[in-house]
Each structure stands twice: as structure tokens, then as C-alpha cells.
Sequence to fold (472 residues):
Amino acid sequence: MNKIAIHWFRRDLRVQDNPSLQFAAQNGPITPIYILDTVNNTQKEFKLGEASAWWLHHSLHSLDKSLANKLNCFSGDPIEIIKELIENNEIESFSWNRCYSPWEIKRDTEIKVLLKENNINVKTFNGSLLWEPWEILKDDNTPYKVFSPFYRKGCLVKHNGPRGIVSLENVTFCKKLDSSGDIDSLNLLPNHEWKDKFENYWNIGEKAAMTKYIHFRDNGLTGYKEGRNFPIKDNVSILSPHLHFGEISPHQIWHDNKDLCPEKDVAHFHSELGWREFSYYLIYHFPFMCTENLNKRFDKFPWSTNKDYLNAWKKGNTGYPIVDAGMRQLWETGYMHNRVRMVVASFLVKNLLIDWRKGLEWFNDCLCDADLANNTASWQWTAGSGADAAPYFRIFNPILQGKKFDPDGTYTKKYVPELENMPTKYLFAPWEADDSVFKEAGIEYGKDYPKPIVSIEESRDIALKAYNQIKG
Fold:
């Protein structure tokens, strides 16, 4: 029986800059595997959302082509699947790139023990972050809770050199294992038709990720610092789902562009990669925050359970056009611009007083880039319950945000077409218009487009009073 080197693909669905795959290539014929874990991620917060599952299906197909159609797919409990692989194969080495969510760390620790007990050379690598979470600590060896010192005093003083590139031209792949299924057997595609329209917006896989990055680098990085706030501009990379699934690595991005554009734009773009690092850092050091408030004072916050408000928010029918545009963009494309994410999140937790976990759950199901670390840290930041959080009294005003960052209404009208003929003067506060304005725009206000479900001023006052109850 020939000895094989197994590389376990997880969230590193690429060939280039893949340290575990590179290691496996040096240890014999490669058997690449993917395991859909259906057992260990038992909490609903950790479940694969439907938009993400759709993306994963197509990303695996793209990866399989890169691997000469030799990807072995399994579904179930990775521990039991790996036990069977050990029994039926002579394994020289077993390697993977690390994941950092609490349930994955626990599972992978058990698998490492299992492999070592069977005298198999097991190696794990950092394939998805710029810095390991345990390497960035304060002088007293405790973790940071504020981004700026974490990034400037912690990350930027650490070495972060470019890594080697894997070439598969001379790599030998083993024939597919008899026990392997194919990608379609994983049953990742959601049942409802909602996901079909996503294909109009996305190209998926390693080549698509690099193409998108290069387009952003050459067309959007200059002017990024300011332009990134405007949802209609080309100053956003839209790389988040590609990064989440590891179709491109942050190392590739970081080292490619650092000398190409104005320093202020590159530095700001790198700091956004730093925020991604900070999110992973937080759930590594404070794993409970994936489901609980990091700031325990918020355990007593009087959240509302108004289902009508929550449903109106989900459907983009709140009566606040920039909020509704964002929520409809999410449903239409599986993505939402980052500035608008902050606006809609603030509206949910601070104007509707709905628990941030409800927003996290909806984003997890609808975002193609749904990422436990980013999703958790961002929602807790908005709610005021997380690390380096926005003060609770910082409440995004959707009227002012719309006027400032979508000044001609192009983004809003794209996703809220019933307001297409509304004068920009009234677009973000349509209740200020009189009947003649609505008549000329061909809108029956309250029927074609809803009136606000809450008053911005009154809901803000209620939110601040609720906050005062817990801040003592």
C-alpha cells in the first residue's frame, strides 16, 4: 500500500499561498479531502447559512477543477471519517490550515491526538490570518480589547513576510478514495429559488478572487480611504466572501499592494484587514462572545421582542429608505456595503431595540461572506456590548447617513425602485414631502412604500433611557 499525504481543505479553498498544501506536496502523493462537518457545530450560531452554503458548493467545484478533479468529499463527523481513513490507508502525513472558532479548535485538538496516537505526522499551519491570535499580547501578556493598540503596538511590530507559492505542475495526486463522495452529495444548495439570482452577481473560486482583487487594486484602491464609505463607488474590494472561504489569502493581498498606491489609502485598506484580524483575535481569546455579550452589563439590557419590527427590518420595509435599500441589497445579492451594514445594524439594535443576536442570525443566513468572527465582533461593536465598541449613545441617523453617503440617491433607488421618481430632497425623509410631490412621483405613500415603523427621535430617546438603566 502506497503512503499518501492528506491535505484537509477547510476555509483555504485555493492552491496559491496554501502552506498546508505546500507541506503535503513535499511528503508524497497528495490526497486532498474536504469534510462537511454536520456533527460538531451544534449551536445555531455556528451553522452554515444558506447563502454561504450556496457559495461553498460553487467554490468546491472551482477548487476541484484546480486539483484535476481529485478532491475527495465527505459529510458527517470528521473524527469518525478520519478514523476510517486511518484504517484503510497508509498515511505518511496529515495537514491542514487552522480555523479559530471555539468549536473547531475543540474538534481539531481531538483529531490531532487521534493522529498522533496512530503515529501519523500531523502538521497545522496559519493559512487565513496575518498574525496568530496568541502572538499578539499586551506587555502583561493579556489580550487587547481595543483595536488601535492591538493593531499598531501588537500587529505592525510583528514580522509578516510573504509566503511561498505552490505550483501543482509536478505534484502527484492519488486516485480518488473509494469511500469518497462527490461535491453534489454534500447537498449544499438551498431548496428555495432565492439563491438562483446570486449567480447574476458573483464569480466564485480562486481565479475569480484574484481577478476581483486586481480590479480593485488597479481601479479602487486609490481614493479608498474616503471612497469606501460611499456604496455606489468602486472603492470597495468586495473580497469578503473570497477571504472567508480562503479563495485568496490576506498575505497575498497585503504584500501585493503596499507600494502601489497613495500611502494613506493603502494604510487604511490594511487597517481594514487588521479589523478582520481583530475579530478573529477576539473570538479566540473570548470564545463566549460568539453567543454572549462581551460586556456583561448588557445581559440586563431590556431588548424588545417585537416580531413585526424584526420582520419589517428583514424585508426592507422599515420606511427608512437607506435602511431598506441595504436590507434589500442583502436579499438580492447576498452582500451589503459595509457603511450600510453599520446603518442597518444600528437601526435594529438602537432604534428597534432588538437583540444584536437576531441581526447576527439573519446576516449569517443571508450573507455569502457570513463569517463567525467578523459577524460577531461587528454586531457587538454596533450594539455597544463588544470590544472597542461604539458607545451606545452613538446612534446612526439613517436620514443623515443617506444624504451624506448616497447624495444623489443612486444606491437607494437601485434597491428601492418604488422611490425612483422621488426628488432627492425628500428621498431619505419622504414623510416631509406633501401630497403633490408623491402624486408627481407616482407614489401612493403608505401603500407603494411604507411609512416609518418608528420615529427616529422618539426611538433614540427610548434607547438612551434603556442604556442608562444598565450603565451604572
The chain has a mean pLDDT of 93. The CA atoms of residues 256 and 323 lie 35 Å apart. The radius of gyration is 24 Å.
